[in-house]
Amino acid sequence: MPLAVTAYTATSALGLGLDAHLQALQQQRSGLRPNDFGPASLACWIGRVTAVESTSLPASHAQWDCRNNRLAWLGLNQDSFVARVHSAIHRHGTSRIAVLLGTSTASIGATEEGYRRLEDDCRLPADLYRPAIHNPHSLSAFVASVLDIHGPCQTISTACSSSAKVFACAERLIRLGVVDAAVVGGVDSLCDSVLYGFNALELVSPEPCRPFDAARRGISIGEAAGFALLERADALPEATQQLLGYGESSDAHHMSTPDPNGAGAELALRDVFERAGIAPAQVDYINLHGTASQKNDAMEAALVARLFPSSTRVSSTKGLTGHTLGAAGVIEAAIALLALREGFVPGNAGTRSPDPACTPHFAWRNEARPIRIALSHSFGFGGSNACLAFADTRR
């Protein structure tokens, strides 16, 4: 069932809100910087949201204070998103809206800090002795509290597909009549577990990441917060941007490596084609998962060549934002929606020498062109795959 996207917002290393993201995309200005995060900074590049340090939660929500929830607060307060949600609450009622958010680490950064500062009796220090933040549901519970929403509240943690899968969950709940609208999104903030964990897997690049480059060396990790408001399209005919459908699959090929043939990703794509009622030739633009890891990019380039005509334009924008992990799905959905709204294809940022396996589908620089249907790919660890299809009804 198509859903109207009645509001959305993005906060990342590119800036706060949609205008900052659009400007960075148009200028191909990267938000990556040398790593200056943590007590012992790993030699790599990161996509850091510097405004998090100067952000504080209101006293009424002090129990939720941690980097991840401060980033969520920062993200919620862009693009009049809270006001748009309050309008939806007025239309539907506070118990008829769901909060569905994705994250890969939630507020684990606060837990890391707590363990670094354990008291002599091995207890967490008093300022971090707050059970609300030391669990995976911290983010969703915090956002539901801030927005005063009392409908279903769910946290999805499926690695890099987390905040794409929340769109699918929202569609099911709305179609089945459980709710009338949903706040979806995702937040992941920088923490040592992520930086050193990916480095231990030899996936972190010592230089800014270069998706689909012949000499790519791995990912650059970023942090971000993104949210969208989804409602029934038939009830809001004036809404011009829609979620047409979604596709999901789990290939379980390997814990940290995609199926080299892209079998799981292809299943997700065929699922989105069927649900959205579209053919590959109708897709104008795809925001690729494109992490700049050797195996992901090789798989995805082959998948594009196999399934889409050369008229479909594709690119990765992780060279600008970094890989924002559990927030990647919603941030790249927001970028796809901006491309639809503004009529342009963002260039594949960071690439110097394109991998010879890349076909003419790839847009290496920005291209002005009308886009009616755009896809966003999210392929997570463990073979958790999700694809989203968006449309602009003005075209």
Automatic annotation (TrEMBL):
The keyword Glycosyltransferase does not apply. InterPro entries: Beta-ketoacyl_synthase, Ketoacyl_synth_AS, Ketoacyl_synth_C, Ketoacyl_synth_N, PKS_Beta-ketoAc_synthase_dom, Thiolase-like. Residues 1-392 form the Ketosynthase family 3 (KS3) domain. Pathway: Lipid metabolism; fatty acid biosynthesis. Keywords: Transferase. Belongs to the thiolase-like superfamily. Beta-ketoacyl-ACP synthases family. This is Beta-ketoacyl-ACP synthase. It comes from Dyella mobilis.
